[in-house]
Amino acid sequence: MTLDIGVVGTGMMGQDHVQRLATSVPHAKVVAVSDVNVDQAKRVGESVAARVYSDGHDLIADDQVQAVLIASPGFTHEEFTLACIAAGKPVLCEKPLAPTIDACLRVLEAEAATARRLVQVGFMRRYDDGFRALKERLDDGQVGRALLLHCRHRNASVPPGFTSDMMITDSVVHDIDVTRWLLGQEIVAASVFRARPSSMAPEGLQDPQMVLLETAAGVLVDVESFVSCQFGYDIRYELVGETGTISLGEQAGVQIRQQGRHHGPIPADWRERFGAAYQRELREWVTGALQGQIAGPSTWDGYATTAVAVAAVESLAGGRRTPVELVDRPALYA
Ligand code: ISE
Fold first, then answer.
1. Which segments of 27-115 does DSSP mark as H helices, in order?
2. What digits encode the pLDDT tens for the residues 80-134?
3. What ligand 1 atom has the least distance to the C-alpha of 94?
4. Parallel, antiparallel, or unpaired: how do β-strands 187-194 and 67-70 relate?
């Protein structure tokens, strides 16, 4: 059995997904790609012998396309996801589900009305071996109840046009999702603190930031967001429980001890650090779509994460603790 997939958006992540689906995901076939940049779409489409569209809606309407992966810019996610729901096609939507709370709620309502899950949101950290081990140890009760969670999220640098808000909506969203998934609790408030800006950060970028999240049961989560750290992509986690701590292991690769020093590799970016996680995410999505069972991060997760990110952006602007309020959770996402 093969799943014929259309990929909307052939930028950096779209290309990454197309190559992975074409080369290392069993039962997956990329049959169509689309992008407003048609030349780029053509190049990517030719590399896997896929049909090329300039409009994602035409790709979604293509009868041969059984499932859709959306990797276009965040502001387009709502319209394409709604079109997939209307067409009854499973969709893997890169984060964010949508940048605004209202847009997320429109997707939530549309999917809930069909009474079956079609949408998965691309929070790939949940597929990482290390993050899964951390959750297993916590759920096993090895350190008692969680009290605190320390998260470090560092990027070597960011592209031109990257804003202070995007440090939250583009980067910290992953930590927001991990917090909710790991602790099994919603986040009820966000506060953002501005650190002394790095002289290596682009002009005007508030970098680093310290984000403090409060969960429903009172766990405090601090997230360092530092996107001009220069030295590589650095993700660290430490959970503090009542009887011990659980830390995320450092990335794979050898560590060398030599001449009074020890050193080892640091990934360049998230595609390297989370390569295996993306692989597993796609495999499980393809298997689930073929079986008619989408089980990964849901539309509710996408909505709740955006709601927290919006509160954090408000806190960054206003300098105040900002509460997060969610609508009632539809039964589909119980
Ligand atoms: C980027 O957009 C991502 O999606 C990565 O997963 C994230 O870790 C990185 O910080 C973002 O800039």
1. 38-47, 56-61, 77-87, 101-114
2. 999 999 999 999 999 999 999 999 999 999 999 999 999 999 999 999 999 999 9
3. 4
4. unpaired
Q: What DSSP element (H or E) covers 117?
A: none
Give phi and psi for 197, each to the nearest 5: -65, 140
User: Strand, coil or helix: what is 159?
Assistant: coil
Question: Atom 12, ligand 1: which residue's CA is nearest?
Answer: 171
Q: How far apart are CA 66 and CA 78, in angstroms?
A: 19
> Which residues is 234 bridged to in the sheet?
154
Q: Hey, how many other C-beta atoms are within 10 angstroms of the C-beta on 323?
A: 12
Q: Is the CB of 228 under 6 A from ligand 1?
A: no
Tens of pLDDT, residues 14-56: 999 999 999 999 999 999 999 999 999 999 999 999 999 999 9
Q: Tell me how far apart the alpha carbons of residues 210 and 226 are, in angstroms, rounded to a whole number.
A: 9
Residue to probe by mutation, ligand 1, list 155, 237, 270, most atoms within 8 Å of CB: 270
Whole-structure pTM value: 0.97
What residue type is 205 in one-letter code?
L
